[in-house]
Design goal:
The complex is a heterodimer of chains A (about 425) and B (about 425). Chain A has 2 domains: about 5-115, no CATH class; about 190-420, MetI-like (MetI-like fold). In chain A, about 75% of the residues lie in helices and about 0% in strands. Chain A has 15 helices and 2 strands. The longest helix of chain A is centred in the first third of the chain and has 41 residues, at about 120-160. Chain B has about 425 residues and is mainly α. Chain B has 2 domains: about 60-190, no CATH class; about 210-425, MetI-like fold (Orthogonal Bundle), CATH 1.10.3720.10. In chain B, strands 2-1-3 form a 3-stranded antiparallel beta sheet. Chain B is extended and about 100 Å long. Classes of the chains: A mainly alpha (about 425), B mainly alpha (about 425). At the A-B interface, α1, α5, α7, α8 and α9 of A face α1, α9, α10, α11 and α12 of B.
Chain lengths: ~425, ~425
Amino acid sequence: MTHYYGVYSLLASLLPALGIFFIFTICDDLIFAELIKKHIPKEVVASKDYNFTIVLAQINNSVEGLIFGTPPQWVTNAAEIWISWIHKSQIITVIICISTALISGFLGYKKISGNFRSRNAVEKIVMSILAVSSVIAILTTIAIIFSVVFESIRFFALIPYDEFLFGTVWNPQFEGAERAGSGQEGLSQYGAIPLFAGTFLISIIALCVSVPVGLFSAIYLSEYATSKERAFFKPLLEILAGIPTVVYGFFAALTVAPFLRSSGSLFGLDVASESALAAGLVMGIMIIPFISSLSDDVINAVPQSLRDAGYGLGSTKNETVIKIVLPAALPGVVASIILAVSRAVGETMIVVMAAGLAANLTANPLDAVTTVTSQIVTILVGDQEFESAKTLSAFALALTLIIITLGMNFYALHVVKKYREQYE
Amino acid sequence: MNNKIITPFEASNKVKRSIAKRRAKDNRLKLYGRTAICLAVCFLLILFYSIFSKGYSGFFQYYVTLDINFDRERIDPKGDLSDNSLFDGEASKIVNESLFSIIQPQGRKAKKQAKKIVSSGKDVRIARMVKNDPSLFGTTTKVKFALDDDIDSFLRGYIKRETPESERRISNKVIEYIDKLNKEGRISYEFSDYILSGSASGNPEMAGIKGAFIGSMLTLSVCLLIAFPLGVATAIYLEEVAKKNKITEFIEVNINNLAAVPSVVFGIMGLAIFISIFGMPRSIPLVGGMVLALMTLPTIIISSRAAIRAVPPSVKDAAYGIGASKLQVIFHHVIPLAMPGMLTGTIIGMAQALGETAPLLMIGMVAFIVDVPNSIVDPGTVLPVQIFMWADFAERMFIQKTSAAIIVLLGFLISMNALAVYLRKKLERRW
């Protein structure tokens, strides 16, 4: 057990130094940002369109050597000061880290003696490392909520929430601070109903494909198939879940949509080149395995005794499945469908590539519609305007998206849990 | 309720009469099930067919063979083979002259059109050749050059000769030139040396996936290095160390919720936290890897926990019995025995991360970057995002290149999943 003494002194010298290193590397930019304020000329700060975030971005760009045009002299100066700080802080960080390592290592080393229970001490440290890493999950949740909620609050300060939730026109424009007072008011409209409707429409189409196919596959695989068939087809269906969504998007946009368009014109139908139908069909294919494998699990979980009772009364397989197994498995099947819907609602790439951006409020699957996720992507990819209602609206959309998908997920898991308890 | 009493004889007759109908019903349900599975498999086959049939040709392209006179004076005026000197040289001119000597265009306009037949990467190609092999100077050698993407599409038959000239992307003159080159046997259809070793390019004939592929590998390694230790540590903590209380229950709920959050939301979090607050640069594999790590964490945790739970208590009890501490039991017995299951979960999580696009779009990995990233802090892109970008380009040839990139991506995903299945079969022990 002697090596625990060594491990103990190693941990004692390494951990504090590492901790300090991380704090320094994360904080230095924040500290610099505060300090640099002093080096921005007063007349710039006093000017009307002063925005610290933009100024900071300018300085950072010239620090990294990304210079567009000729920045004003004070930006270059500030960037030079910034660079000198980086050099200084690097040296300071190294010195502090090494000295902490030496000091704490020495303290740890001094503790070691015949009576010192090093194994227990090491275990305590490792256990706390394990505990800390499990907190990451909580931190991630907090980070997600934090990043979405704050920007959403700012959005709802600009746009009243009832306009967002119940408005029927979605037409975001970049207008930034000019929203009030430049005669452009009312150009942008943030009514999210068309987006929800589009999402809903595409999800419904997807369900029309995936529910029958998934459910019948599950019934067949769990009740009729031989074990060989099962071993072959189940992984084959799951391949569908492993294909990247960007591939589905490509398939929808370049194979399915043109096919629908040309076959639509055969019947004299005018199919939009980015129709909801194409995106919905392909999304339906994508979520087949979610429904089939989850339903398969719940159908298998129905106790054999129920089936045997059915057979004992002389019923056929069909009658057992329809009248006994399915009703018993119904909550689980419903849960699997809800989970599939929440997948469909949160799915991004297929709709970005195949569903288009036209915010039409329509129930016609042959028209182009847009969805919550595809709007988020279009707004946040590429150049953004700071503080503009358009940028912020993406966060509000993300908030509603999270609420919807998590709500569905909670409900589905609740149903599954309740149902499992019944047979245990 | 029908209170009429029937005799057993009548009853058995009734059952007999209905039995054919009931059997038929049974067969019908069976048929529906088979149809459903066939449909799903058909979808899969159509998807693969449509991608492979297009993508196969994306690995090939048309080349033209020209006789190039490697005149050192003209190609490398300073004579030191430096990039500057080669840039000042007249490599493109030499290629054009060689081309003109075959097709003999008359007049300035015709020459201008003829120049465009050979892809604009011709000077880079000559520069690379002489750098690799300076002994070429002074010789006249046959060199293969990629053809422009419109010409390529024409040779593949996507641009039809019959289309009126005004609606065609290439003129009658150019078609005449191509016929001339074809007659001399100078045009060949070969495995493309751009698709695997080229980087992002606006010219489809020179575009390749090398940059995106390396970006994917860098992003994935960051993701693995973060997600695997964190996931395993969390799983061990929740299964072996922590007592069941409100806090661990809360952590569990959190993990399940994270698994249900749409991936695009993770991208928004990366944008708001890593880029806006921590001030990390956009489009770097480091940030991409971190976002993907948080996204795959639930997958790894859930499968690792299942693997740890499957280790029989008798093994642990035996270790405790000979005086092992909790940590020794965990590190000497539980982890080695649960490792196959943990690795399987990790590989599946990594496959998921490799195919993910939306969160990486959010953190700016969609930028057009020509240089191949050398480290995790160089701006780069990844394969799925490259596919997304190429799918948006208008040029016909990008469709084939996109499909080729998809084939590469699917190849990796399938081999990762196969590895996971193999590991599970090979190493998993039943107790």
